[in-house]
Write a structure and sequence with these properties.
alpha+beta; five-stranded antiparallel β-sheet; 4 helices
Length: 255
């Protein structure tokens, strides 16, 4: 079921957006050569505790997950691109790290993701990350009344294709509200003018993610982490966005 939020409800959602943005900022700044993924999860967990927020991940057990997630942030490294389950891994120079975090504050959820390079970057990694960020910006720009879901999807795909990246549509954006995942699904490729009409009050997570040389993925033996089929690296960018009568509001805007 798709629910439209009132302006007052969108204002109430801002606190969750600010909190999620703060955790993304803190964990990305803490990520450095020699830092363990479990340390980043512990940092996010402590921030949740101090804020009186609730994790959307720790008990999350959808049909595609092998078990409840058990951690509070996704940490995907190098050829992992989505749902990276934090484990005993120490970050190395040049690692491409994607952080994905969602939490509930006062009953409202926000969801956001960022990709960074730890230590010395490869030019190819910076280009991949930049493409996901520009695709996110393009998708947000298309999130306006009068457009449809397909217009967001096509805006994202145009940036990816211009960069020479293939697009997987198994996972993409989604509705956000009282729960982390809801309707509508927002694939990262689509046809303009098709799909659900965008109306003020719709709150969605827009999340382009691309792999360097493939569009195929497989699930790691941990039952959660999604990796590229050919070992190439992946990047992921995401914001929670509210559609209004005017410009879209990025609830998880950082900085």
């Amino acid at each position: 079921m798709i629910e439209l939020r009132t302006p007052a409800e969108i204002d109430e959602m801002r606190a969750a957006g600010r909190f999620v943005a703060s955790v993304i900022e803190a964990t990305s700044k803490a990520a450095a050569v020699g830092v363990n993924l479990l340390e980043l999860d512990a940092l996010a967990h402590e921030m949740i505790r101090k804020a009186g927020a609730e994790s959307c991940y720790i008990d999350y057990h959808p049909s595609f997950g092998a078990s409840p997630f058990g951690k509070v942030i996704c940490t995907s490294v190098n050829d992992a691109v989505l749902h990276g389950l934090p484990h005993d891994y120490t970050l190395r120079d040049g690692d491409l790290l994607s952080l994905d975090f969602a939490a509930s504050v006062d009953g409202w959820v926000s969801d956001s993701a960022i990709s960074i390079v730890v230590g010395t970057p490869r030019e190819a990694d910076l280009r991949l990350i930049d493409t996901t960020q520009r695709a996110l910006d393009a998708g947000i720009s298309a999130a306006r009344p009068g457009n449809r879901i397909g217009d967001i999807s096509r805006a994202i795909a145009d940036v990816a294709k211009a960069g020479g990246y293939a697009i997987n549509t198994d996972f993409g954006g989604h509705g956000v509200g009282r729960t982390m995942h809801g309707d509508p699904h927002i694939p990262n490729n689509g046809r303009p003018g098709r799909g659900l009409p965008l109306k003020p009050g719709l709150v969605i997570a827009i999340e382009p993610w691309f792999l360097e040389t493939t569009d195929r993925i497989f699930t790691d033996p941990d039952g959660w982490t999604l990796r590229s089929a050919d070992g190439s690296r992946g990047a992921h960018s995401e914001h929670t966005v509210a559609i209004t009568d005017g410009d879209p509001i990025v609830l998880t805007k950082r900085g």
